[in-house]
Write a structure and sequence with these properties.
By secondary structure, the protein is of the alpha+beta class. The chain folds into two domains: 2-35; 40-148, Immunoglobulin-like (Sandwich). 20% of the residues lie in helices and 39% in strands. The protein has one helix spanning 2-31, and strands spanning 44-46, 51-59, 63-70, 76-83, 101-107, 119-130, 137-148. Strands 1, 2, 3, 4, 5, 6 and 7 form a seven-stranded mixed β-sheet that branches. It starts with a helix and ends with a strand.
Length: 150
């Protein structure tokens, strides 16, 4: 009976040490950032259906450039873009004709952008009036991209 108990204990101890080694290895990989999922996420810029983000760029000096395309089916007026809680408005056209693009430049003064190669993630707040209406629509999108060097 004691030999069976000893065999069971040796079995449990061997697997216990193996599991402990695996947990330490996973912990080390996570600590050094190898398992950081944000490194593997692609860059994306999503606003709302009908308004597409054709191109985007965030530079380490604290500026962002966003190219929006109007696919709503009507001309957009009173277009204002804000990036997260970075303060201020983007400079660019206040109207975008149906099917046309508008390029907006934004100074990210109140946001921490990070060095080149790091990830930048912020909400895009877009407000506009469609078809000459006085009703203002406010949509929230998201910008996730790699920061480019100056």
């Amino acid at each position: 009976m004691y030999k069976k108990a000893q065999a069971a204990m040796e079995f449990l101890m061997t697997y216990g040490w193996a599991i402990l080694v695996v947990l330490v290895a996973i912990g080390a990989l996570a600590y050094f950032g190898v398992l950081n999922p944000s490194k593997f996420l692609p860059s994306s810029c999503v606003v709302t259906p009908g308004i597409s983000c054709d191109d985007h760029r965030v530079v380490a000096d604290g500026s962002a450039t966003i190219v929006l395309r109007n696919g709503v089916g009507q001309d957009l007026s009173s277009v204002v873009i804000k990036v997260g809680g970075c303060g201020g408005d983007a400079t660019g056209p206040t109207t975008i004709a149906d099917g046309s693009q508008g390029t907006y430049t934004y100074a990210l003064a109140a946001c921490t952008v990070g060095a080149g190669g790091s990830k930048f993630k912020a909400d895009l707040n877009v407000s506009y009036a469609a078809g000459g209406s006085s009703v203002t629509h406010k949509k929230v999108g998201q910008l996730v991209t790699n920061v480019e060097s100056s």
